[in-house]
Design a protein that fits this description.
The chain is mostly helical and 358 residues long. 69% of the residues lie in helices and 6% in strands. It has two domains: 213 residues, no CATH class; 119 residues, name from scop. β1 and β2 form a beta hairpin.
Length: 358
């Protein structure tokens, strides 16, 4: 029974998920990001291939036309290399920008905005050789190995098939003009890259689904862990019950002390009871000294009867005082008239009783 109680059968609580995210542990597929980047770059190359060819033609035309006039010395070599570097950078810059934008968008789509320094903290467990061996032979390592093999087989197979299917056309490229040679090679590269990227994307989607499954599985909790977390976040139910009992006891002690000194108890008539205290000349306004609902209201009425504190039934005034005025506060000005009428009634009753006594 003890072993089964520790089985991780419960889904991770929001607190567990939040703590994991704070540590930088999220469900994310690097393959999905890589596949999207590859698709975007292939799409970009397909879109700008004509301009790409035009830029290459212009550069090489300029380079070869001026090559015979340039003497290669230590002084002239640096500008030549600078021009070549700037030209190469201008060609690949759009691809870098697209790759960066797609990478950011992919990560935001998978995990949202996340900044944490937990991953930068040094961890001693990575120095443990046993921990390293366990990772090498873990299920995750096996899955990563299978993914690499699948990528190699599928993408390699697609490339082999396309080369074999187009081998005849590729063998004829040497008889084409430079422009035809370029278009044929670029077209073939785009075709291979496109089908390879689609295959990679399909594998990446499966990998993302697995990463989410593995992430949720790794965060699953035992029933005991859920109980412990509930106690930490909400408090131990026994302690909370004890606190409620203490508050109830303190409230009852205050009622026992304050109600006998009250001037009047306003009732609802049975659901609510509010005790008011007013000493003319000593207090600027009546004060709520005790209030309660249901069994507490009944207890207030009993104490009031035992101590000959008048009970006055006024449903609206009792509800207003109970829901609006806290114990120890003076009544608000909008209820002055209603309370004044109740106090006047109490004063007349006491005057009548005193008259009868004499």
């Amino acid at each position: 029974m003890a072993g089964s109680a520790q089985e991780r059968t419960e889904q991770a609580t929001p607190r567990r998920l939040q703590e994991s995210r704070r540590k930088g542990q999220v469900a994310r597929s690097t393959d999905l990001t890589g596949a999207l980047i590859l698709l975007a770059m292939v799409a970009l190359l397909y879109t700008i291939q004509d301009q790409f060819l035009l830029d290459l033609q212009r550069y090489f035309t300029y380079y070869f036309s001026s090559a015979a006039e340039v003497r290669v010395t230590e002084k002239s070599l640096l500008p030549i290399l600078n021009n070549a570097a700037l030209f190469s950078l201008s060609l690949i810059a759009p691809f870098f920008v697209v790759a960066l934008l797609v990478a950011v968008a992919s990560n935001l789509a998978q995990v949202g905005f996340l900044f944490t320094t937990e991953v930068l903290k040094p961890r001693l467990d990575i120095l443990n050789p046993m921990s390293g061996l366990q990772k090498m032979f873990s299920t995750r390592s096996l899955v990563e190995l299978l993914k690499s093999v699948l990528k190699f087989i599928i993408i390699g197979g697609i490339t082999y098939y396309l080369i074999k299917a187009n081998l005849g056309d590729l063998m004829l490229v040497f008889n084409l003009s430079p422009e035809g040679l370029y278009k044929t090679i670029i077209g073939f590269i785009i075709t291979v890259a496109w089908w390879g990227a689609l295959a990679y994307f399909a594998l990446a989607v499966l990998d993302y689904m697995y990463q989410r499954y593995d992430y949720k599985k790794s965060l699953m909790m035992s029933k005991q862990e859920v109980k412990e977390e509930f106690r930490q976040s909400e408090g131990d139910p026994h302690i909370k019950a004890r606190q409620r009992e203490m508050r109830r006891s303190m409230s009852m002690n205050k009622i026992i002390t304050e109600v006998p000194q009250a001037t009047v108890v306003v009732t609802n008539p049975t659901h609510l009871a509010v005790a008011l205290k007013y000493r003319q000349g000593e207090m600027s306004a009546p004060v709520v000294v005790a209030k309660g609902a249901d069994w507490l209201a009944e207890r207030i009425r009993d104490i009031a009867r035992d101590n000959k504190v008048p009970l006055v039934e006024d449903k609206e005034t009792a509800q207003f005082l109970y829901h609006t005025v806290e114990i120890g506060q003076e009544i608000p000005i909008e209820i002055y008239q209603a309370v004044a009428q109740i106090l006047a009634m109490v004063h007349r009753l006491k005057a009548r009783e005193n008259y009868r006594a004499t």
